[in-house]
Write a structure and sequence with these properties.
Blueprint lengths: L4 H11 L13 E6 L4 E5 L12 H11 L5 E7 L11 H8 L7 E5 L5 E5 H4 L7
Parallel strand pairs: 3-4
Antiparallel strand pairs: 1-2, 1-3, 4-5
The structure holds tetrahydrodeoxyuridine.
Tetrahydrodeoxyuridine binds next to helix 2.
């Protein structure tokens, strides 16, 4: 399947509007492309009890898994830093590796469209497994 990277970034950027982030004020959107061609979106959702908050990537993956999707191609992540693409945090890297192949594509983007492409195995070469 060809990946429309610009479209995926656009969807993630739009999703940022839904972020619930009154504490950090840092909006993040994620657009997860599934093998069936569908795209599942997620935004960060914070909480007054800070550690309970959840990142955009984990929201997108959790929604997709709970909807019965099992195969994934790529995710675009758009943070709030202008000009600098936002990479996934360490916890999200580990979370995502559970469900994807080593060549799963992570597109790190900024709101103005700057982006870099990485594979999940580049981002987390030594994942924890049980
Ligand atoms: N955040 C994400 O949604 N994804 C990441 O990979 C990095 C951080 C969120 C968590 C928090 O709501 C805000 O960005 C600031 O850390």
């Amino acid at each position: 399947m060809t990946i429309d990277i610009k479209k995926l970034i656009e969807l993630a950027n739009e999703e940022r509007k839904k972020a619930y982030c009154p504490y950090s004020k840092y909006r993040v959107g994620a657009a997860l492309l599934c093998k069936d061609g569908s795209v599942v979106l997620g935004c960060n959702i914070e909480n007054a009890s800070f550690t309970v908050g959840i990142c955009a990537e984990r929201v997108a993956f959790s929604k997709a898994i709970s909807e019965g999707k099992t195969e994934f191609i790529a995710v675009a992540i758009v943070g709030s830093t202008e000009k600098v693409p936002t990479p996934p945090c360490g916890a999200c890297r580990q979370f995502m590796t559970e469900f994807v192949d080593p060549d799963f594509l992570v597109i790190e983007a900024s709101p103005d469209g700057e982006y870099v492409e990485r594979t999940i195995s580049e981002l987390l070469p030594d994942k924890f497994v049980l």
